[in-house]
Amino acid sequence: MSPTARSDLSGLTDYVSAAMPTWSSPGVALAVLKGSEVLYQGVFGQRDVAADLPLTADTRFPMASVTKSFAAMSLALLVDEGKLSWDTPLREYMPEFVLKDEYATQHVTARDMLSHRTGLPRHDLSAWRLDLPPAEFVKRLRHLEPSASFREKFQYNNLMYYSVAHLVQTLTGVKWERFVHDRIFAPLGMTASNFAPEPPVAGMPLAQGYRVERHEDGTAKELVPTPLGLHTELSPGAAGALFSTLTDLSRWLEVHVNEGASGGVQLVTPANLKQMHLPHTVIPGGGVNEVLFGNSIFTYGLGWMIEPYKGHTLVHHGGNVEGHSLMIACVPAQQIGVVVMVNVAASFLRDALLYEALDRALGLPASDWSAKYHAIVDPLLAGQSKSKSTTAEERIANAPHSRPLEAYVGEFEAPGYPDISVRLVARPAGAPVDGAVEGTVTATVTGTAIGQLEACTVGSLPYTPVQHYHYDVFEWDLGDWEQRLKIRYLTNDVGELYAVSVPIEPAVANVTFTRKAPTLAPELLALISGTYQLPIEGMALTVSTAAGKVYVTPEGQAPSEVTVYKVDDGVVGLMLERVRLDLVREEGVFRRLRYLADGLTLEGERVQAPQA
Predict the structure, then answer these.
(1) Which residues lie below 8 Å from residue 467, measured CB to CB, with a gap of 6+?
(2) Considering the domain boundaries, does residue 398 fall inside one?
(3) Which residue from 171, 70, 167, 160 is spatially nearest to 115, judged by alpha carbons?
């Protein structure tokens, strides 16, 4: 520990030290400021347990959704300059901004984007960690299903914050990350902050993140190191890419408790700072939050949450990312700011320490916030652990999958989302299977190995195990996300597994990912070309290719592009509307065509090879 404290916060050091082990937290960084003065700064524990490295005030943390306050500030600076209006429809700045809801498309403003009221739910896996330019992502938004009408209710949404980066670049010609560096970091002297795990200056340490592995009763079992995922331009981008330190974030909070100024720099006008701190969208209260705070009023501003707290107005925002939990908060009227950083995932210690520090800084009666959070959270953790056994109990025993495992392999696509790839991996016989439980999908491959299905979102989540549940339903374990999705394969009229139904966004119906059409190698394209005569006069079909596409020309008609639905050693299957055209290869040459339509099956011979 290396705390420096005033007498009114002197008990905070002992409180943090006592609370940390009860939450299995390896490290904590905490600061409290008033105006431009740091009242308390304490760093506790380790930034890296295995290496026995201490946490320090200059240790960098990934700040996750704390980034949103910087995204909001970047737009506030543009409003100050007259380049943007909070309430002008975005389409006037970005004509390419299109949502599935036409009314929302025409009316969404910057204020709507930042206050989570566009009608879109999270749809996080549509963009998570994708190496995709923000401009390209904005074009994909039109495919995503809304779950509410425009401005109907609060729905936390990272996607709109991804879009902020594109809006800033559109209005300034400068990438968002450069804009924030030049207009926020540099003026405030935030020299340790940037948007990548690699520090802006060599030698700045990074906190190792962890998650807590738990026993069946929800109690902590062990800490598991959790690597950070890929940081791309898009994701986490303006929604969560910030890396910063206790010192830098204290400078950031100075702006928010001093009417937009810090260190003699007037960063933003008081009027636009106020816009960020005003309630814009109501967050449903009641339930657990009312039990904790004795309050049923919770709101969201622009990149900040706002709520009454014991007679004060509290402005705050948290962040959760792989292995880390963060919170920044301020009470502007009292010029009080608090930063809490914890290097363990989804930890409520960050919340407990925030409110404990606030009570002490504001001279409020003690509440023992760690104990209050344990009373709520501990039964929830036990319930989460119990849910795993509940899932196993609901599984129908002796209900096998309907196909060999190889039939479930492939790539599947849905508009607006990254492709889902399913593969079958071989493991030496007798080797343990990752995540194996009773009923794990396994099969003997060539008699010497064990096979297991794995799936990923292409360019996003890594491959993780897919286990058989019952029938054609499988459980996809998302690994460090500590979440399992039940995915269901769909069968078409001819018994083929043509798609998979995935609960990829809980707020809307399952999204159907259709099996991607196979691609044909150039040499195969040349081999299938030619004219095939069916046994009815006037029903010749000519197969041709151009620019990698396949066309079929019925006799006397214009060519139609067809899709490839099957490729194996003996057949190339083409789909012309509802008609299947199977080209049959014999001894390396495509000699026959099977014409398969509803109520009609014909077989023809190849009568003409392609012209040389």
Answers:
(1) 435, 436, 437, 439, 440, 441, 453, 474, 475, 477
(2) no
(3) 160
118 and 204 in a single domain? The answer is yes
The answer on 566 and 484 residing in a single domain is no
Domain residue limits at 548: 522-608
- CATH number reported for the structural domain that contains residue 584 in this entry: 2.40.128
User: Average pLDDT for residues 336-363, to the nearest whole number?
Assistant: 97
**pLDDT tens string 47-89:** 999 999 999 999 999 999 999 999 999 999 999 999 999 999 9
Q: Cβ contacts of residue 341 below 8 Å, gap of 6+?
A: 28, 29, 30, 61, 207, 246, 324, 325, 326, 350
Per DSSP, 60 falls in state: B
Contact status, residue 207 vs residue 55, Cβ threshold 8 Å: yes
Quick: pLDDT tens for 401-412. Answer: 999 999 999 999
The burial of 238, by beta-carbon neighbours within 10 Å (0-12 exposed, 13-18 middle, 19 or more buried), is given as buried
Nearest residue to 339 (alpha-carbon basis) of 253, 242, 258, 276: 253
Q: How far apart are CA 171 and CA 92, in angstroms?
A: 11
pLDDT score of 1: 38
Are residues 197 and 303 both part of a single domain?
A: yes
| Contact indicator for 37, 183 with CB cutoff of 8 Å | no
Q: What is the largest CA-CA distance in the chain?
A: 100
pLDDT at 436 over 60: no
Token code pair at residue 481:
């996300």
The tally of domains found in the chain comes to 3
Q: Could you tell me if residue 396 is inside a domain?
A: no
The answer to whether the CB of 61 falls within 8 A of the CB of 326 is yes
Tell me which residue has tokens 């890396």.
Answer: 243
Residue 392 resides in a domain: no
Mean pLDDT of 135-158: 97
The residue from 515, 530, 548 where one domain ends is 515
Residue ending a domain, among 481, 515, 549, is: 515
Do both 327 and 439 map to the same domain?
no
b/e 285-295 (16+ beta carbons within 10 angstroms → b): eeeebeebbee
Give the tokens for residue 602: 């014909």
The verdict on whether omega for the bond into residue 506 sits within 30 degrees of 0, i.e. cis, is no
Whether the model pTM is above 0.90: no
Task: Name the residue type at position 443.
Answer: A
